[in-house]
Structure formats: C-alpha cells, structure tokens
C-alpha cells in the first residue's frame, strides 16, 4: 500500500468525532412562571367581567311571588340597558358624579401638584417627613376615613358645626345641597397624597443640569416651576387625571357609609350604589350588570377621550 492509501485507510477506520449535543430550549418556561398570575387574573378579573357582560343580556324570571316555584333566566337583548338608561335615578346619579368629577378632580390635582412642587423645591425642610404625612391618609381605609369625617359632619358631635354657630353660621354638611361636597372633601383628603407622589416621581426624573442652567440664567423658583417643572411633569399629571376620572365613576364607599347619617343620600345616589342596590336589594342582577357595564364603558370613553385630547393638544 502506498502512503496515501495507508492514510486514507486510517482515517476511514478512525471513529467519527463526537459533536456536542445542543440543548433544546424549553419554550414553555415563561408560561410556567406566568401561570400563577394568569390564573389569578382570569379568576378575579376576566371571568367576573365576562359574567357581568353575559348577565347584562339576561332576564331573571321567578315563578311565584318570591320565586318559590322556580327561577329561570332568558335572553333579554338590550332591554336591561334600555331600562337602566331610562331610569331617572340612574341618570341623576351619572350627572351627580360627573359634576363631582368636574369640580373635585381639578381641585385635587392642583393641591397635589402644589404640594409636590413645594416638597421638591431646594428650600424645602424635612421633605421626607412631609411626604409621609401627606401620603398617610391614603393608607387609611375608605370606610374608616368616612367614619372619622362623619364625626366632623354630624350636628351635636362636630366641632366645626359648633364653631360655625359661634360666628352665626349654620353649616349643614349632610344637607341635600352640601353632602356631595362633603364627600368630595373626604376623597380629596384621601387621594391628594397619592397623586402628589405620582408628581414627585416625575419631578425626580428631571435632570439636575436643567435646574443648574436655569439658576445660572437667573431664573427664580417660580419661573423654574412654571417654565421647567410644569411642562416636564405633564405625563404624570395626565396619569393622575385618568386615575381620578376612573375613581370618580367608581364612587361608592363614602356615600354608602354616610347614607346612615345623611337622609339626602338615597340608595341610588351614585351609579355604583344604584348597581349595588339593584343586585342586593332588588335581586335584579340583569339590571345591575347592565349598569355596571355602562359605568365601565363610560370610564373607558372618558379616559380614552381625555388621553386623545391631551395628546392632540401636546402635538399642537
């Protein structure tokens, strides 16, 4: 055999090189990690929403005076929505919360913005302490906060009412013309600190170089606030306003608690109270679900409309 043939024979008899095995990627790992969250989301958010929408198109039929002969459900179409939108109490409740939002939301946003600007100014003392103090009301449950404020509203218990009588003012915080603004006061006291922190988070993201350049140009603190800080915290203000709009339509706890001390608060004082009353007082889950769907759609339309308006205004 020649040398060439010998080398070829050795190569043919030599074992083939072992290639390293590639590890196959397990594509299902992210879904396994997300499974607990997705399960909770489906059970606590998605399923109730689907059930409410389905119930809004059904009608409960009870045989007998109290349904003792059986209860059946049937498809109602849009009858529940028609009945809800023709209910004068429900329409008045919607108008009431819209008036509440038009007044309360801007006032609360202004308070939150002013507090945030003051606490983030260079001359602020103990900002961490005051941030915690202003945020503290948000940590108090709404029921407890309303009960605490009710002692300041009820005549005979309220030092504010007694102080007003000393100067000739007869203040009725729970009257039909004032109880809505008493509720607005509780909501403002509770959520101003929360919105303040949203604005502060945006303020802290502003580069310090901008402040230094403005001070070198001789800008006063007021000029810095109006020309630099307010334009740059616009996204935080928009977010705060959207949250407040949604929260306004969900107004429930404060009027529900004050209902026990104020005859002016009826069982359908707000849209959420109306849905609650229809579901648990009248056992009419179809109407209650229709009202809940209307509230959700109204919150979406108002929030989306506000975002579209602010984006269009920001580009102009």
From TrEMBL:
It is found in: Cell membrane. GO terms for biological process: transmembrane transport. GO terms for cellular component: plasma membrane. Residues 94-306 form the ABC transmembrane type-1 domain. Belongs to the binding-protein-dependent transport system permease family. Its main location: membrane. Signal peptide: none annotated. It is a multi-pass membrane protein. SUPFAM superfamilies: MetI-like. InterPro entries: MetI-like, MetI-like_sf, UgpAE/MalFG_permease. The chain crosses the membrane at residues 31-54, 97-119, 131-152, 179-201, 232-253, 285-309. This is Multiple sugar transport system permease protein. Keywords: Cell membrane, Membrane, Sugar transport, Transmembrane, Transmembrane helix, Transport. It comes from the Bacteria. Pfam families: BPD_transp_1. It comes from Kutzneria buriramensis.
């Amino acid at each position: 055999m020649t040398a060439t043939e010998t080398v070829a024979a050795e190569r043919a008899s030599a074992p083939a090189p072992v290639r390293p095995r590639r590890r196959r990627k397990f594509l299902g790992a992210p879904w396994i990690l997300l499974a607990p969250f997705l399960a909770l989301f489906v059970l606590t958010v998605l399923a109730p929403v689907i059930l409410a929408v389905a119930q809004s198109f059904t009608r409960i039929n009870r045989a007998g005076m109290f349904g003792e002969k059986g209860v059946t459900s049937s498809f109602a179409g849009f009858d529940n929505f028609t009945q809800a939108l023709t209910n004068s109490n429900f329409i008045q409740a919607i108008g009431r919360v819209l008036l509440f939002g038009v007044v309360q939301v801007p006032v609360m946003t202004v308070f939150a913005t002013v507090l945030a600007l003051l606490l983030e100014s260079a001359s602020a003392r103990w900002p961490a302490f005051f941030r915690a103090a202003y945020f503290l009301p948000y940590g108090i449950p709404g029921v407890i906060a309303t009960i605490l404020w009710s002692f300041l509203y009820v005549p005979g218990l309220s030092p504010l009412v007694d102080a007003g009588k000393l100067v000739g003012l007869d203040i009725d915080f729970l009257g039909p013309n004032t109880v809505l603004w008493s509720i607005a006061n509780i909501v403002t006291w509770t959520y101003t600190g929360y919105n303040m922190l949203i604005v502060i988070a945006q303020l802290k993201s502003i580069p310090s170089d901008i402040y230094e350049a403005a001070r070198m140009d001789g800008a006063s603190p007021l000029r810095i606030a109006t020309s630099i800080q307010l334009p740059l915290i616009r996204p935080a203000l928009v977010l705060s306003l959207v949250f407040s709009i949604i929260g306004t339509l969900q107004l429930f706890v404060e009027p529900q608690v004050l209902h026990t001390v104020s005859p002016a608060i009826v069982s359908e004082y707000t849209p959420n109270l109306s849905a609650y009353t229809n579901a648990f007082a009248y056992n009419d889950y179809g109407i209650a679900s229709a009202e809940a769907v209307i509230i959700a759609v109204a919150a979406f339309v108002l929030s989306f409309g506000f975002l579209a308006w602010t984006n269009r205004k920001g580009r102009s």
